[in-house]
TrEMBL record:
Listed name of the protein: Septum formation-related domain-containing protein
Signal peptide: 1-24
TM region(s), chain numbering: none
Every Septum formation-related domain range: 67-160
């Protein structure tokens, strides 16, 4: 199991969830890798403001993660879960591989169950989108999940996305690229 998958699973088990506008985000393996490796801020692009966490800072990013669609390329979200959706032919951190419905029951199945369903679905989405089996791929995946509150509104969608396993910027879409 890749370290990124172990970290995502550990985060899911601990239910460390950040919420905004109905989406919950597990810290991406990229964020954790940078923190553990001393790589600096987990945010990228225009979100660098020099402010401490918790300060009331307006994001330089313009797009909500809730607006992401399959095939969108985007920068790592900032602390407010806003991002910049960019052309896939320009430098970017992530690409949306699927929007997956992770349940149809009325009652929220719990954070751990949502994480399990999302992990399984997003792994398969990466394989289907890129075209190469996971163990041979130079890509990894993560996801944004619906919160308990948004679940009650009927939105049961997880946003799956892929990124370079070494956290290198991507400069093209990896759809069907088999990388």
């Amino acid at each position: 199991m890749r370290p990124a998958r172990i970290l995502v699973a550990a985060l899911a088990a601990a239910t460390l969830v950040v919420t905004l506008g109905g989406c919950a985000a597990f810290d991406t393996a990229r964020d954790i890798g940078r923190a553990l490796g001393g790589g600096g801020s987990a945010s990228s692009g225009g979100s660098s403001s020099g402010s401490a966490p918790g300060d009331n800072v307006v994001s330089d990013y313009e797009d909500s993660v809730d607006d992401l669609e399959v095939g969108d390329c985007f920068q790592d979200p900032d602390d407010d879960l806003f991002t910049s959706i960019v052309d896939c032919d320009t430098s970017h951190d992530n690409e949306v591989t699927a929007l997956v419905t992770v349940g149809d029951e009325d009652a929220y199945p719990g954070d751990d169950e949502i994480a399990t369903r999302s992990d399984d679905a997003c792994l398969q989405a990466l394989v289907d989108y890129d075209g190469l089996d996971y163990d041979s791929s130079s890509l990894d995946y993560s996801y944004f999940t619906p919160t308990r509150t948004i679940w009650r509104t009927g939105d049961h969608t997880t946003i799956c996305f892929g990124y370079d396993v070494d956290y290198a910027p991507l400069d093209a879409s990896f759809k069907g690229a088999r990388i």
